[in-house]
Design brief:
70 residues; mainly alpha; 0% strand
């Protein structure tokens, strides 16, 4: 495995986070029987993708310098 990717793009990491959150929610007494883990993982990844797009747009609009060669 020579290709590297950031940790936040790993489906395994996000599935683990969702699993931990569902476990904590179950221990806290929050009903989690009707929640589908893989679907929730996909939803979380889509939300993160949308959020990163918004951050990129905001960053470019609020930038003080142009993009280009120096």
């Amino acid at each position: 495995m020579l290709n590297l990717k950031p940790w936040y793009l790993s489906r395994t990491i996000w599935a683990s986070v969702v699993t931990m959150l569902l476990g904590v929610a179950g221990l806290s007494g929050i009903p989690v029987d009707g929640i589908d883990g893989p679907t929730l993982t996909d939803t979380v990844l889509q939300a993160i993708t949308a959020l990163s797009g918004l951050i990129a747009i905001f960053g470019r609009v609020s930038a003080k310098q142009r993009i280009g060669r120096s």
